[in-house]
Amino acid sequence: MKKLHFPIIVEIDEDGYYIVSCPVFSGCHSYGKTIEEALENIKEAIELCIEEEKTENVNKFVGFRELEIEVNA
């Protein structure tokens, strides 16, 4: 069986929930009360996305960059 690796973006919302996204698939998001729960949920979401699309046709993840922007606070 082939193993695939996917990037995951993790954020925390205003209620303290972990919001997780996989940028390789459009609309592939989930959440959880704990990071472990959120990661299990995104794993299920990714598996569903894989069933819907051929893995050759998914977005190619290039990398992560952080951008600094000055704002008036």
Structure description:
This is HicB-like antitoxin of toxin-antitoxin system domain-containing protein. InterPro entries: HicB-like (IPR031807), TA_system_antitoxin (IPR051404), TTHA1013/TTHA0281-like (IPR035069). The chain is of the alpha+beta class and 73 residues long. The chain has a domain of 47 residues. The chain has one helix and three strands; from the N terminus they run βββα. A three-stranded antiparallel β-sheet has the order 1-2-3, with helices on one face. The longest helix is centred in the middle third of the chain and has 18 residues. The mean pLDDT is 89.
Provide a short characterization of the protein structure.
With 73 residues, the chain is of the alpha+beta class.
The number of strands is 3
**Beta-strand content:** 15-25%
Low-pLDDT parts are: none
Secondary structure category: alpha+beta
- What letter string, H or E per element, gives the SSE order? EEEH
The average pLDDT score comes to 89
Radius of gyration over C-alpha positions, nearest whole angstrom:
14 Å
Largest sheet: 3 strands, antiparallel
- Share in helix: 10-25%
First and last CA, distance: 52 Å
The DSSP helix count reads 1
Shape: globular
Strand order of the largest sheet: 1-2-3
Pfam families: HicB_lk_antitox
Protein name: HicB-like antitoxin of toxin-antitoxin system domain-containing protein
Domain HicB-like antitoxin of toxin-antitoxin system: 6-60
